[in-house]
Amino acid sequence: MKLLNIIKEIDLEIIAGLDSENQDNEVKGVYICDLLSLVISKAQPQDIWITIQTHVNIIAVSTLVDMTAIIVAENMEIDEETIAKANEVKIPIFRSKLSAYELASRLSRLGI
Amino acid sequence: MTNKSNAINLEFNVMKDDFSRAGEASSKIKKILTQLGIVSSVTRRVAIATYEAEMNIAIHSLGGKIEVTINPNEIIIIAVDNGPGIEDVKLAMQEGYSTATNKIRELGFGAGMGLPNMKKCSDEFDIVSKKGKGTKVFMRISLDSKPV
């Protein structure tokens, strides 16, 4: 499913990094974890990553394994530096008040 | 970047405690491999291995560097730091063992998976550490290695 369709279906706050090009990128799976070593070794290309980590290193982790986007769950505060880096490297970051479980359930209902 | 006898050599310095820049060296290495057309499964191995090496240097050492040599049939990664060295290398290689502080763990690091992840991504792995001197990690990733 295209990222843009997910944004339409799930109420996500657009934080940074989204543009007219990457909004059409495919999301093929979901990975949920806050331990960065696990994320980098287990997340797959084109996954959307749900996390509560918000410091700038999450941008490197997501781009190193070619994830499509990051959703910060539970409305966590996102570092300014992270937002700037996401805009620089064009990795979309969204935020939601929903929990990781609720987000995953909704993504699952969308067929992801 | 230098190019001698079909090999490409890259070198990146990694600063101690520099979390805002940590991840940049591995990101640059990945970008170069992608540009060179290296198969994505190998690029993924290198990306994971260099990311973990970079984070280890930033979190645990006094600073160091990562050297990458891209040969026609393999990629060699050498991560070397200026100390303080690892007390018990065998223990450090155990998954789940970490000496990271609580503050570091709250940021999602310090899971005790860095060195094991590096080993898993390598076709050949070696670590030498001397207390008071520093640590050197050698990794060889073959260009025909299978996806991890």
Question: What is the helix/strand order of chain B?
Answer: EEHHEEHHHEE
Q: DSSP strand (E) fraction of chain A? A: 15-25%
Q: Tell me what portion of residues of chain B adopts beta-strand conformation.
A: 25-35%
Largest sheet of chain B: 6 strands, antiparallel
**How many domains in all of chain B?**
1
Instruction: Name the CATH architecture of chain A.
Output: 3-Layer(aba) Sandwich
N to C succession of SSEs of chain A = HEEHEHEHEH
Sheet with most strands: strand arrangement of chain A: 1-5-4-3-2
The CATH superfamily of chain B turns out to be Histidine kinase-like ATPase, C-terminal domain
CATH architecture of chain B: 2-Layer Sandwich
| Computed CA radius of gyration of chain B, to the nearest angstrom | 15 Å
Task: State the helix count of chain A.
Answer: 5
Mean of residue pLDDT values of chain B: 94
What distance lies between the first and last C-alpha atoms of chain A, to the nearest angstrom? Answer: 7 Å
Helix content of chain A: 25-40%
Report on this model:
The complex is a heterodimer of chains A (112) and B (148). Chain A is 38% helix and 18% strand. Chain A has helices spanning 3-9, 36-42, 57-64, 80-89, 100-109, and strands spanning 13-16, 29-32, 47-51, 69-72, 93-95. Chain A is globular. The termini of chain A are close together. Chain B has one domain (2-142): Heat Shock Protein 90. Chain B is built from 5 helices and 6 strands; from the N terminus they run ββααββαααββ. Chain B has helices at residues 24-35, 40-60, 89-92, 102-106, 114-121, and strands spanning 2-4, 7-14, 64-70, 74-81, 124-130, 134-142. In chain B, a hairpin with a 2-residue loop joins strand 1 (2-4) and strand 2 (7-14). The mean pLDDT of chain B is 94. Classes of the chains: A alpha/beta (112), B alpha+beta (148). At the A-B interface, helix 2 and helix 3 of A face helix 1, helix 2 and helix 5 of B.
